[in-house]
């Protein structure tokens, strides 16, 4: 139980911590990315602005770019000027050529992004994007200019290998840091979870010990009360009838308390895992036949038909005493909750890896809403009947513990008014 709690605690801690680390990493990378590129974009924008002013003052005559003034063209920035159809009118990529068309090879030129041109022509706003040209990373700014009535598109671009390198380094450091952070978080939360669970574990152990000790301590006085009451009952004929009835009541209640205390003790021990399951080969066929022999007289006396169906010997590795207790709990319930004229059936089938045991009755059934809760401690469907049924509300909790301790499964199917069946699968 604590193992599951510890893993859940660790899993949640790691999940939350990882989410925080990932979000922080994304934010840090985003800030760094935008800072790196905003300075590149500024550089491109500055050249666009200078070009615009210069061409404007020269009435859009591109020939003026043959001998540009100092500081007009940033040597780190490549520039291409096209018309609105995307045809190149001038480019800084061919320093020898002056005015287009020239001998400049198209391969040497920064590619003109037709998509960017379309975009800026549609929106009238600059378009800035990252791209790759001749396997190198580039930042490209596309900018529309209307000069002397004609539309020009200026594309300024800059190689951003250094920036990309720095960004990749930051990314790698962040990824590495996040992975390391997650590993450290897992180790740290395991350590913290272990520490946090110590007082809870101790309190739980104390609680279990208390229940076990209290149940144990109650047994002796209960046995004494019962013995005394029995003695008085033996002399019942000398007592007034009211007293005799009171004694019978005392004996009944003491029996109920005894059962309750026994069940509590079983569950307290089951919780503390100190009740060892002594496993050895058990033939379920023999066990079922014996239990049925014990109970079919009671069934008969209540007018309930009982039957056993077994398809051969089925040997499981288990604790015979506990498996007997499991059968008794289920059969006792089946008899308790089935009216005279009904039927209780026990069946056992063995397959390659499993033994399948079914205890079915044609009794009052369990409402669908109650079905998921019946294995809970002290859960009873009909609280009004709990006393008259003589049950403790712990039977099915014990049955479930026994099955789970044998690495098996137990489930119940029921229909109100039609009956209930408990199906158990145990590994063979
Ligand atoms: P109890 O001692 O009250 O029988 P259990 O833990 O054995 O406690 O069962 C829990 C509840 O499940 C019972 O109170 C009863 O309402 C319901 N139940 C168990 N077995 C059957 C059955 N065969 N038919 C109908 N109801 C059942």
Short overview:
With 428 residues, the protein is α+β, with helices and mostly antiparallel strands.
What does this protein look like?
By secondary structure, the chain is an alpha+beta fold. The protein contains eight helices and twelve strands. It has helices at 2-57, 114-123, 161-234, 241-271, 284-301, 320-336, 386-389, 395-405, and strands at 78-83, 88-91, 127-133, 136-147, 150-159, 280-283, 305-310, 315-318, 343-350, 354-361, 409-415, 419-427. Strands 2-1-5-4-3 form a five-stranded antiparallel beta sheet, with helices on both faces. α5 (284-301) runs parallel beside α6 (320-336). The chain starts with a helix and ends with a strand. The model has no long low-confidence stretch (mean pLDDT 87). The structure holds adenosine-5'-diphosphate (ADP). Adenosine-5'-diphosphate is lined by residues 333-334, 337, 361, 363-366, 374, 379-382, 386, 389, 391-397, 420.
């Amino acid at each position: 139980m604590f193992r599951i709690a510890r893993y859940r605690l660790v899993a949640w801690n790691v999940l939350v911590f990882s989410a925080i680390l990932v979000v922080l990493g994304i934010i840090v990378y985003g800030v760094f990315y935008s800072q790196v590129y905003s300075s590149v974009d500024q550089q491109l924008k500055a050249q666009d602005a200078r070009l615009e002013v210069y061409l404007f003052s020269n009435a859009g005559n591109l020939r003026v770019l043959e001998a540009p003034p100092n500081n007009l063209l940033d040597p780190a920035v490549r520039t291409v000027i096209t018309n609105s159809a995307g045809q190149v009118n001038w480019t800084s990529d061919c320093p020898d050529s002056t005015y287009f068309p020239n001998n400049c090879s198209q391969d040497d030129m920064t590619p003109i992004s037709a998509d960017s041109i379309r975009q800026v022509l549609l929106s009238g706003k600059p378009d800035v994007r990252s791209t790759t040209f001749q396997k190198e990373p580039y930042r490209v700014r596309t900018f529309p200019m209307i000069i002397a009535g004609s539309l020009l598109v200026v594309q300024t671009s800059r190689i951003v290998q250094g920036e990309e390198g720095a960004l990749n380094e930051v990314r790698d450091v962040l990824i590495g840091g996040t992975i390391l952070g997650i590993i450290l978080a897992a180790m740290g939360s395991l350590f913290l979870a272990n520490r946090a669970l110590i007082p809870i574990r101790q309190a739980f152990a104390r609680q279990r010990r208390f229940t076990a000790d209290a149940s144990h301590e109650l047994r002796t006085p209960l046995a004494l009360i019962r013995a005394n009451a029995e003695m008085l009952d033996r002399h019942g004929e000398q007592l007034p009838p009211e007293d005799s009835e009171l004694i019978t009541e005392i004996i009944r209640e003491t029996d109920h308390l005894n059962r309750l205390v026994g069940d509590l003790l079983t569950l307290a021990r089951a919780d503390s895992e100190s009740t060892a399951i002594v496993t050895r080969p058990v033939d379920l066929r023999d066990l079922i036949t014996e239990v049925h022999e014990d109970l079919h007289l009671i069934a008969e006396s209540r007018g309930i038909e009982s039957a056993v169906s077994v398809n051969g010997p089925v040997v499981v590795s288990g604790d015979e005493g506990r498996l007997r207790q499991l059968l008794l709990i289920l059969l006792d319930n089946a008899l308790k909750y089935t009216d005279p004229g009904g039927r209780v059936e026990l069946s056992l089938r063995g397959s390659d890896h499993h033994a399948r045991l079914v205890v079915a009755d044609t009794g009052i059934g369990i409402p669908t809403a109650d079905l998921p809760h019946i294995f809970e401690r002290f859960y009873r469907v009909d609280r009004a009947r709990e006393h008259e049924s003589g049950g403790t509300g712990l039977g099915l909790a014990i049955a479930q513990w026994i099955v789970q301790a044998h690495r098996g499964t137990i489930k119940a199917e029921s229909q109100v008014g039609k009956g209930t069946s408990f199906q158990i699968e145990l590994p063979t």
